[in-house]
Design a protein that fits this description.
Helix content: 25-40%
Structural class: alpha+beta
Number of helices: 7
Distance between the termini: 24 Å
């Protein structure tokens, strides 16, 4: 548990910005409520996540690391999609940013919620990509940056990961307690 006197010390003795510290204070707390629309314009709310753990990915079409991690995140959904929710939040919109055309070139098989810039601010997310792991009751259990690569396949020119990376470990932990 964080003590109130620890936060000022973290700020003084590190290069952490206050907004980043506030973001990580979400750990162990209920995910703040939201209502956003998907690519078809249908509303989706945070209450729909309850009952099944979730991986929430924050990304944008201009974010090179976000786009780079999509194929590996898709593999996670293929492997664990029946055990947990996979939801992506983007600040982009279908109308303004041609999001649909972007996704045709860069498939992302998560359930995509658009126009999430204000929710990103609510969560104090300052850098993307950002991945939040939520338990079945809706509590934030882990916060991670971009997908962890462990190797590079020189022949194919692609980044690879093994089934023993920490994203997989987190997913297996959260799905085992459901």
């Amino acid at each position: 548990m964080w003590r109130k006197d620890v936060i000022p010390a973290l700020i003084r003795h590190s290069n952490l910005h206050l907004s980043r510290i506030r973001f990580f204070l979400l750990l162990g707390k209920k995910l703040p409520e939201f209502k956003l629309t998907d690519l078809r314009g249908d509303e989706f709310s945070s209450s729909q996540l309850i009952g099944k753990s979730a991986l929430l990915n924050y990304w944008a079409i201009y974010c090179v690391p976000c786009v780079a991690e999509m194929p590996e995140l898709n593999k996670l959904k293929e492997k664990y999609g029946d055990k947990m929710n996979f939801v992506a939040f983007t600040e982009n919109t279908c109308k303004d940013d041609d999001l649909i055309k972007f996704l045709e070139k860069h498939p992302f098989n998560y359930y995509i919620l658009q126009n999430a810039e204000n929710y990103k601010k609510t969560l104090k997310i300052s850098a993307i990509p950002r991945n939040l792991f939520i338990d079945k009751e809706g509590y934030v259990r882990y916060i991670q940056g971009n997908f962890p690569y462990t190797a590079f396949d020189l022949e194919k020119g692609i980044k690879k990961y093994d089934d023993n990376n920490y994203f997989v470990k987190i997913i297996e932990e959260l799905t085992a307690i459901q």
